[in-house]
Amino acid sequence: MSTVSNTRIIASGVCALFSSWLYLLGAFHVSYAFNSSKLIAKNIILFCLGGIGIAYGIVHAEYIAIATSAKLSAEYQLNMQSTIALAVQVNQILRMIIYPLFAILSFVFIYNVLRKKTTYSNWILLFYPLIPFLIQNIISNNLTGKWKVIIAGGYLNIILIIFYTASTINLWNKFKSREK
Predict the structure, then answer these.
(1) Around Cβ 71, how many Cβ atoms within 10 Å?
(2) Burial of 126 per CB tally in 10 Å (0-12, 13-18, 19+)
(3) Cα–Cα distances in Å, from 122 out to 41, 52, 142?
(4) Does residue 122 contact residue 114 with C-beta atoms inside 8 Å?
(5) Which of 16, 27, 36, 119 makes an SS bond possible with 49, Cβ 3.0 to 4.6 Å?
(6) Over the range 72-102, which residues count as b (16 or more CB within 10 Å of their CB) and which as e?
(7) 70: how many CB neighbours lie within 10 A of its CB?
(8) How many angstroms separate the CA atoms of 31 and 12, rounded?
(9) Whole-angstrom Cα distance, residue 79 to residue 102?
(10) Is the Cβ–Cβ distance between 60 and 15 less than 8 Å?
């Protein structure tokens, strides 16, 4: 990260804001599929996805602190690990706060989809982020070069884009079939 341009760091900060807004909108999108579920399930989905979406934006913005610290370390010939240590620690703490929300979300989401208490078809579970999240290290550790930078660097965003795309297709097809 010490060689990343200032423009890219600034763009990352701006993207953090927009991504958290979009993930928050995604929470409403998914909660809509839970209209036929119990209100408590729908509210848990909305709260957890909303909380995770906001936290993703904050974690994404935290990379600005890591990148800026790394750049300063390189520029002033400081020890890289000690320079970025605090920013990395904050990033890890933020992630630890998100994981329980993700566990609760996963349980409620999977349970309700399998019990057919949502608008979703069961195939949405193939795209639910839990499995890709759990195998992240396996995938990232087997990549090299630019593919590692692209996929490992944006892994969480990629799995969420795939999930929200599948969710949109699933809901679109359900509503189109109702119109006929």
Answers:
(1) 18
(2) exposed
(3) 17, 23, 30
(4) yes
(5) 27
(6) ebeeeeeeeeebbeebbeebeeeeeebeebb
(7) 20
(8) 28
(9) 35
(10) yes
The residue count for the chain: 180
Dihedral sign for Cα atoms in the order 113, 45, 129, 179:
positive
C-alpha–C-alpha distance, residues 124 and 179, integer Å: 21
Task: Tell me the two tokens of residue 179.
Answer: 């119109």
Read off the pLDDT of residues 41-98 as tens digits, 9 standing for 90 and up: 999 999 999 999 999 888 888 888 888 999 999 989 999 999 999 999 998 999 999 9
Question: What pTM was estimated for this model as a whole?
Answer: 0.87
Distance CA 47, CA 32 (A): 13
Mind giving me the DSSP string for 61-124? HHHHHHHHHHHHHHHTT--HHHHHHHHHHHHHHHHHHHHHHHHHHHHHHHHHHHTT-SSS-GGG
149-170 pLDDT tens trace: 888 888 988 999 999 999 999 9
